[in-house]
Amino acid sequence: MADLPTTMNEVGAAGEKRRLYMLDRSARDVGSAKNPYGAEVAGAIKSAKRVLELLEYLAERRRPLGVSDIVRGLNYPQSSVSALLTSLVKLGYLDHDRHKRQFMPTMRVALLGGWVQDELYSEASLSRVVDELHAITGQTVILGMQNGIHVQYVHLVQALKPQVPHWYIKNGSLRPLCRSAVGKVLLSLKSDTEVVHLLRRINAEEPDPSKRVTSTALLRELDHIRTCGYAVTEGSVNPHAGVVAIEMQTSNRQTPMAIGIGATVAEIRAHRDSFLKAEGSRGTLQGRQAQIVDGGRADISDFAGITQLL
Question: The whole model's pTM is what?
Answer without folding.
Answer: 0.60
